[in-house]
Specification:
This protein starts with a helix and ends with a helix. The protein is of the alpha/beta class and 492 residues long. Helix 7 runs parallel beside helix 8. Helices cover 31% and strands 16% of the residues.
Amino acid sequence: MRKIIHTNILLLFAFTSLSSFAQKVQKPNIIWIITDEHNFRTLGCYRDLMDDTQAKQWGDKVVETPNLDWLANNGALFTSMYAASPVCSPSRASMFTGQYPHTVNMSVNNKIMNKNYPTTAAILNQQGYKTGYIGKWHLSGDAKPGWAPDSYGFNDNRYMFNRGHWKKFGMKEDGTPFIDSKDKKGELSYNMNGANEKTYSTDWLMDRALNFIEKNKKDPFYCVVSLPEPHGPDAVRAPYDTLYKDVKFDMPRTFTEGRNEHSPYWRKKDKQVNDPKKMQKMIATYFGSVKCIDDNIGKLITSLKEQKILDNTIILFSSDHGDLLGEHNQINKGAPFEGSALIPFIVYHSPTITPGTIVKKPVNTTDWMPTFLSMAGVKNQPKSAGRDLTPLIHKPELKTWNDVTFSRIHKRWLAVINDRYKLAIDVSKSAPWLIDTKIDPDELINHFGEPSYKDITLKLAKSMKVYLKEQKDPFEKDSKFMTKLNNILMNN
């Protein structure tokens, strides 16, 4: 009898252990690829949803992105994903905490993010995830490169660096990473210094991610791969440096249009775009960088398939903000225009997402933390400013979704956005701007003050007023800003 009981106990213990192990590995892995300053029009899956006048801003020659397109075609693509703030550190703060930048001391670049707000990694650690961060962080002050800064919850951050757009990386025999390029003064440099498929930033960082995955695949893992491309400086390794070298690019449709004495000061002219040769080189290199990124994503997908873990892995692709790349006669970011504030966002998970899902509702980067935690099955989540997007992924036309979101630049402007209109108010003497992206996708016309737009202007202004109070946004205490907003509310 004792032997039978003992055997049964062993069987029960074995069953329980196996059951616990099965539950552990059933949690989905999460891989998040982040690019830096990435214009959504350079992705084929986004161009496919636009007419040629919008899709081919730089002419008929485009970047082919078959691997990103595969993720989108077999997952969900968001067409109205906006940066909570289209500049690096503020956007990244919202991405990892689910809070608006001003809430976590990150309204501008190079601050230190408030540690009182948990990150996605900190929560997933509690759920048994192995968490790793590889690449650019830009949330730990001025340190440059700043290897392995405060981890903010990531178990493995040895290949995390705080900031910089380095081109060539190396690793010592003991596994210590370093920047493998110096200038004539012996200072760390962005020079290519012969970077190749093993040492160039995008390749080197993706290889570190593949190593992390291989090492941790027996457990559920959360791996962030933050690539410093296609952000400047304008350089990419061979053969991507010559793929578009001889292409004669067009300048975007809005390159010379739409600016006058009544324009807000975010509709500025950038001096760099006046040099045709520089713009041609910039676009050619940018396209080459995007192609290199796509090829590396293909390498990642192939590796996951070979290891038989693709089906249990959520793959996320996004950028921190866009790059106007000549649109509106500007480069880089900082404006509420689509090329600056709208960012690519793709979610792939074969067991739970219907292939080809398109989500058009306006959302922003504060929504990522609650969404990722929900997809990982986390029930008791910390309070955030964002919303769980999983209901939209499963029902893109969800009627109960509050159809508005927000984007801002500290002490400059705040925009309230729905799936058609943008109301942007700045602190200059110019009038508020109301953009109708349906009839004016080039965003050249200010409809503010037109009688036919009175109702939508008032509706958006009311939403902005609620946001200011709920999120304690500093614009609420800016007299110039509030005068403009209150005039809308009183006069409509």
